[in-house]
Amino acid sequence: MKTIKLSIDKAFAFIDKQKVTAYKMPAEAANLALHRATGRGSDFLGWLNLPSSIDEAHLTDLENTAQILRKNCEVVVVIGIGGSYLGARAVIDALSNSFDWLLTDRKSPIILYAGQNIGEDYLYELQQLLKTKKFGIISISKSGTTTEPALAFRLLKTQLEEQQGKEAARKLIVAITDKSRGALRTLATQEGYKTFVIADNIGGRYSVLSPVGLLPIAVAGFDIRQLVAGAVEMENETAVEVPFEQNLSAQYAAVRNELYQNGKKTEILVNFHPKLHYLSEWWKQLFGESEGKENKGIFPASVDFTTDLHSMGQWIQEGERTIFETVISINETNHITVFPNDPSNLDGLNFLAGKRVDEVNKMAELGTMIAHIDGGVPNLKVVLPKLNEFYLGEIIYFFEKACGISGYLLGVNPFDQPGVEAYKKNMFALLEKPGYEAETKAIKARL
Ligand code: PA5
Predict the structure, then answer these.
(1) DSSP summary character for residue 296
(2) What is the pLDDT of residues 150-164, one digit of tens each?
(3) Is the pLDDT of residue 421 over 90?
(4) Residues 6+ apart with CB under 8 A from 382
(5) Mutate to test the pocket of ligand 1, among 117, 146, 196 (most ligand atoms within 8 A of CB)
(6) For 375-388, where are the alpha helices, taking DSSP H only?
(7) Which CATH class is domain 5-40+234-419?
(8) Is 280 in contact with 432 (CB distance < 8 Å)?
(9) Where in the chain is the domain with CATH 3.40.50.10490?
C-alpha cells in the first residue's frame, strides 16, 4: 500500500449509495471551482498548489534555520494559536516519542507551545521552567496582532533577553508572519529577527505546509521533505482532472455531505493511537472554521479510543442518532510489543500470549466499528499504511482538499471565519482597549 486509503462502504447501510454517486458532478465542479478560482473565497487558495510549489531554496532555508535552533536550544517554544499552531503540533505529536520530554538521549530540542491560551498559571509555570533552560522562540502570527500569541511573545521575549542578553536573544527568535503588515512584522524588522512569510492567500487553518508548520516540524527533527512529498502525492491524486471515482477528497466530501443531509449533524474523528490527538484538533479547526457558518455545517468532534470508549463510548453507542464516525486507522505500528505468556495465568490473559499489542488494538477497532454500525452510527475509514512524514503529508492535503470541496458542496465560503471576531471585540471592549470606547460603554451597560 503506497498511499492512504478511504473506505466509505460502511456508510451505505445508512444512506443511498446512488445519492453519493450523484455527487460526481457537483464535487467535480467544486474541485474545478477551486482550481479555476471561481468559487467563494478564491483569494485564499494559496494552499491548493502549495506542496508542488515548494522549492529547494525554501526547504534549505527552513532546514538551515531549524539547524540553528536545534544546535543552540534545549527547548524551543512555538508561539501561535489556531491555524498558527495546530498543524505543527499535530505532526510533531504524531511523530514524537510519547514520552519525548523525559528522554535523556535527545537529539532534538523539546518543543513547547505558548500563545494558544491565556492561562496565567500555564504561562507562569512555563516561565519558571524556562529559567533553567537555553531556549529559543518561533513566534507565528499571520495578522501579527492576535492577542494570545502577542501576549506570550512579549513575556517570553523579555525573559529570553534577560537570560541571554539582547544580541544573543535576537539570534534565537524566528518570526513567521505577513510580509509587510502587523505588529509582529514591525517588531521583527526593528529587532532584526530571522523571518519567514505567510503568503497573503493562505489562511491559518490551511497553512501547515507553509513555514508555519514546516519550521517547527524541522526543529523537532522531522523530515519536512517527506512531509511535502506526501502532500505533493495527494495534490496529484486529487487534481482537477482526477475523476470523482478516484478522487478520495471528493468522495469523502460527498459522503459526509450526504450523511449531513440525512440528519447526521456531528462527525466524530476517531483514532486508536494517542499520538493522533492533535491531528484531530487540527482537523476540527479545519472543518469547524471552514463549514460552521450561515447556520450550517457538520459539528466536528473527536475521540481518542480505546481511552474514550470508557467515557464517550456509551453516548456514541446509544445516544441521539445524529452522528457518524471517521476512523483514522494505522496499518503498521512503528514498534513491536508481544504479549508474554504467564504460566500461572492469574489474570486469565494467556489467550493473548504471543500476540502483538497492536493485534488487540486492531480487534478493538474492528469490534468498535461493528458495534457502532449496529448501534446506528455510519462509519468511514481513512487508512494510513504507517505513521510517518509522508503519509501525514498525504492525509493533511487529503483533508484540506476535501474541506474545500465539502464547503462548496454545503454552499458556504470555506476560507473565511467571520465568527471568530465576535469574542475578540467583546474582550477588547471589556479590557478598554484604545479605540473601543463605544463598545466598552455598550458592553458595560449589559453587565
Ligand atoms: O485559521 C485561522 O485563520 C485562525 O485560526 C488563525 O490562524 C488564528 O486566529 C491565529 O491568527 P494569526 O495567525 O493571525 O495570529
Answers:
(1) B
(2) 999 999 999 999 999
(3) no
(4) 4, 5, 6, 7, 252, 326, 327, 328, 329, 395, 398
(5) 146
(6) none
(7) alpha beta
(8) no
(9) 5-40+234-419, 50-227
CA triple 46-47-53, angle to 5 deg: 80
Q: Would you say 123 and 88 are in contact if contact means Cβ atoms under 8 Å apart?
A: no
Distance between CA atoms of 51 and 49, rounded to whole angstroms? 6
Buried/exposed code over 1-27 (b: 16+ C-beta within 10 A; e: otherwise): eebbebebebbeebbeeeebeebbebb
- Catalytic residue ranges: 289, 310, 424
Q: What percent of the chain has pLDDT over 90?
A: 95
pLDDT mean over 331-353: 97
pLDDT for 1 equals 54
50-227: CATH topology: Rossmann fold (3.40.50)
> Residues with Cβ within 6 A of ligand 1?
81-84, 141-143, 146, 149, 203-205, 289, 417
Q: pTM above the 0.70 mark?
A: yes
Residue 315, all three cell numbers? 453516548
User: Please, which residues bridge with residue 302 across strands?
Assistant: 269
Residues in the chain: 447
